[in-house]
Write a structure and sequence with these properties.
Number of strands: 9
Structural class: mainly beta
Helix content: under 10%
Number of domains: 1
Order of helices and strands: EHHEEEEEEEE
Distance between the termini: 37 Å
Length: 208
Amino acid sequence: MKDSQGNLVLGRTRWRRFAAVVIPATIAVSGLMAGVANGAVPVTFHVSGQTAKISADRLVADGFSQYGSVVQEKNGTPHPVAMSAIKDATLTNLCQSVTTPIPGLGNVTLFIRAGREDGAPVKAKDLLIGMDSLEGDAVFTNINIGADASELTAGGAYHGQAGLFGQEADKADIAGVKQIARLTQAGTFALNGLSLTVSMDSTGCFAG
């Protein structure tokens, strides 16, 4: 397997901190932020401005692409993100939490949990996640780093803007997922064993 410059890349690559892979995708989006601000880059929908903590014991992605992008709040505030596109995802012990300050009450956190180890895992197709950060122990199979973001195909129909840094792999296996996300989209999302709770615990799915 070779990268976009013709250099040899091993078929299976392991990173202790997957955040090191996310960084190149996000530092390349300064031009995109300017394009969003002046209307040259269209915004298909607005994000809330809040972030969600997402954790999972394991995420297995069959067909994975990643590229830098920008999302925008309704008031015009832009946020650079790393977009991760996955054709088919399987998640074990998924937790998602969003904390909202409520006047007179304090921080209230909504928890969604699914895919417990003793039951069926969470399944998603055509998954797209726009994230601020991601940590975990990752193994990639047949990874291509440095591809043009507009030519990415492994993660399905999602791709980035021409000229921007992109990367893709046939498979990504990530253990101990800890993620800060601004958006999540999916063609289908099967939350087996779904549990929704509200708590005054502002820590969320993980500390930090």
